[in-house]
Amino acid sequence: DNSSEFIPPCRTCRRQAREQSGEGEHHEGLSSDEELTPTEVDEFQKSKDNVLEDSRKIFEDVHADFCDIRKILLKFQEWKEKFPDSYCDAYISFCLPKLLNPLIRVQLISWNPLEQNFAELEEMTWFRAIEEFSDAENVSES
């Protein structure tokens, strides 16, 4: 029995339904299946605000030396300069991505490249800190 099968309404049917209901917010070329109702937009915004608020609390009880990427990388730079053999034996270049991953992810929670005023990755402080650390590593190796 195929009667329980969902058949999506055709484009013309959706357009007629919008016109009858008085919804004039549709833009031609955009899928009405992807349009959100005002209730859905409000729920999404509340959920997003809750996630952003929770993300601000993640590192609130962590000492500043251990939640700032620049300070962490400075510690590793000092280690490399003072004890190069130990630094090399610890394979730090392989460990840093896993170590910095949670810190970077928290900073990228609110980043949206589709927004008009989004910040470029290269402009973010964590990116510059890693770039400076990489440049310092390359200079000291050569």
From TrEMBL:
Residues 16-30 have a biased composition (Basic and acidic residues). The keyword Aminoacyl-tRNA synthetase does not apply. It is found in: Nucleus. Residues 13-39 are annotated as: Disordered. One of its GO terms (biological process) is mRNA splicing, via spliceosome. GO terms for molecular function: DNA binding. Keywords: Nucleus. Residues 70-132 form the GCF C-terminal domain. InterPro entries: GCFC2-like, GCFC_dom. Pfam families: GCFC. Its main location: nucleus. GO terms for cellular component: nucleus. Belongs to the GCF family. PANTHER family: GC-RICH SEQUENCE DNA-BINDING FACTOR, INTRON LARGE COMPLEX COMPONENT GCFC2. This is GCFC2 factor. It comes from Daphoenositta chrysoptera (varied sittella). The lineage of its organism: Eukaryota, Metazoa, Chordata, Craniata, Vertebrata.
